[in-house]
Design a protein that fits this description.
Blueprint (H helix, E strand, L loop, with lengths): L8 H23 L11 H16 L3 H21 L7 H20 L5 E3 L3 E6 L5 E7 L2 E7 L5 E7 L2 E5 L8 E9 L2 E5 L5 E9 L2 E5 L9 E9 L2 E5 L1
Parallel strand pairs: 1-3, 2-4, 3-5, 4-6, 5-7, 6-8, 7-11, 8-12, 9-11, 10-12
């Protein structure tokens, strides 16, 4: 059975590369006095747009799509405000973030196995026969031990927060793919000593680090893909 969490890594990397080239060209044209883009295109709004676009291209879940759309929307609002097209007042609009986050939380609550944290979560979780994780940590920490006889991967998102997932009591039947997204945050995975870890991530002012001992065979493989944007991803056993 094909893993439905198989990430679209090539597509997201192409999109990221094209967007970075586009931003670089805009700044170059501005420095050459060919195009005046400094007011509209600055580091912070473009950062949110790039992060949101990468998240949209690299996610397989509805929650990830909502988060990516939110980042893009925030970046667009800031850019329009800098261009004097709209008056973006944080004091007036900040309650919308609570409303949006509440809607996001309700959506998560209706989807059973998905796990989420905004202020801290610890404990154990039995994934059962599903064997898939879908974790989001925003402005908080997520620390949990999960166990399943057939871990199949999933998606982990850490935004200005941290996620520590202990998989040492789990097993893999063949290969599992975990798609990670760490933005101003960190993800730590603890895996059994008989798992082979394959890193296929893209660090952007961040890092991917593997601290594992090579197992005697490659019968159980964990593939870790995704992005670490000003954040870090660590896998150890």
């Amino acid at each position: 059975m094909q893993n439905k969490f198989q990430p679209k890594g090539v597509t997201s990397q192409v999109v990221l590369g094209l967007m970075v080239i586009f931003v670089g060209l805009l700044f170059l044209l501005d420095n050459l006095d060919i195009l005046d883009t400094r007011r509209a295109v600055s580091f912070w709004p473009m950062l949110f747009i790039i992060v949101g676009t990468v998240k949209l291209c690299d996610t397989q879940t509805r929650g990830g799509q909502l988060m990516g759309t939110g980042f893009i929307g925030l970046g667009v609002l800031i850019m329009l405000d800098r261009m004097d097209i709209i008056d973006f007042n944080w004091r007036v609009l900040w309650p919308l973030f609570f409303i949006g986050f509440g809607v996001y939380t309700l959506y998560r609550a209706r989807t059973g196995r998905r796990m989420m944290s905004i202020d801290g979560a610890k404990g154990e979780a039995d994934l059962g026969g599903d064997g898939v994780v879908d974790i989001t940590a925003i402005l908080g920490g997520f620390d949990r031990r999960v166990f399943t006889p057939n871990f199949r991967g999933g998606e982990i998102t850490a935004v200005m927060g941290g996620c520590a997932l202990d998989l040492r009591n789990s097993s893999i039947q063949g290969e599992a793919v975990v798609n990670v997204f760490a933005f101003w945050g960190g993800v730590t995975l603890k895996v059994p000593p008989d798992w082979t870890v394959i890193l296929d991530g893209t660090p952007i002012m961040g890092g991917f680090e593997e601290k594992t001992i090579a197992p005697p065979d490659n019968s159980k493989r964990l593939v870790v893909r995704g992005y670490a944007i000003m954040g870090g991803v660590e896998i150890r056993n």
